[in-house]
Amino acid sequence: MDSRLLSLPPELRTQIYRDVLLQSDPISLAISEPAHESNAQPGLLLTCHQIRNEAISIYYGENAIRLGIRSLRGNALVPLVRIMTKYSKNKDSSPEVRLVHYGRPSWVNLKDWLKQSHKLRYWNVLSIMADNGLKQTHLKGKVVGSAFKMVMTMKDQPWENVEKVLDLYHDTVRVIDGTWL
């Protein structure tokens, strides 16, 4: 069966994709388990390869996305932020990501997230999270942003050296805010 949508000129299809996929408010995604690509996409992007290839950069590159994570299980976000970065229209800047933390802060989860990002050399993910966290007004966001900034600064160091600095930072954070276990 032929698709009526795919029989339209590319310019018209692009306008339809924009009308369907662009949101005026940030798209909110709550992620607690590792994010699979299809979990965070509208159905239009899952209909066929051609439509996906034509429309995915509109969805991820032109929308603001608010990512919610529980207890700083950030490893779940890494694949999604990589996808967003890949399809971002402006390759010179990161996609607009607003990180929303909920649940009790977990240093173990944050450290795992930082370790995976460092190991896999996801500098764009680290940069996004550092910038996002440092813009926050609440302490949890500042702690997360500062931790990401430290890892970015030490990106050429082996993880063992980075981990020692983070452990010292954690000791300080626990004195200021006892909820960071």
What's a concise summary of this model?
The chain has helices at 10-21, 49-62, 78-86, 107-119, 123-135, 139-153, 159-176, and strands at 27-31, 65-70, 97-102.
Percentage of residues assigned to helices: 40-55%
Rg is: 19 Å
What is the end-to-end distance? 58 Å
Kindly state the mean pLDDT as a whole number? 81
State the low-pLDDT regions, or none.
none
Shape: elongated
Specify the number of helices. Answer: 7
The arrangement of helices and strands along the chain is HEHEHEHHHH
**How would you sum up the major sheet?**
3 strands, parallel
Major sheet: arrangement of strands: 1-2-3
The fraction of residues in strands falls at 5-15%
> Could you tell me the number of beta strands?
3
Protein structure class: mainly alpha
Structure description:
With about 180 residues, the chain is mainly alpha-helical. The protein folds into two domains: about 1-105, no CATH class; about 105-180. About 50% of the residues lie in helices and about 10% in strands. It is built from seven helices and three strands; from the N terminus they run αβαβαβαααα. It has helices at about 10-20, 50-60, 80-85, 105-120, 125-135, 140-155, 160-175, and strands at about 25-30, 65-70, 95-100. A three-stranded parallel beta sheet has the order 1-2-3. Strand 1 (about 25-30), helix 2 (about 50-60) and strand 2 form a beta-alpha-beta unit. Helix 4 (about 105-120) packs antiparallel against helix 7. The radius of gyration is 19 Å and the shape is elongated. The mean pLDDT is about 80.
Based on the model shown, name its key terms.
181 residues, 2 domains, three-stranded parallel beta sheet, 3 strands, 52% helix
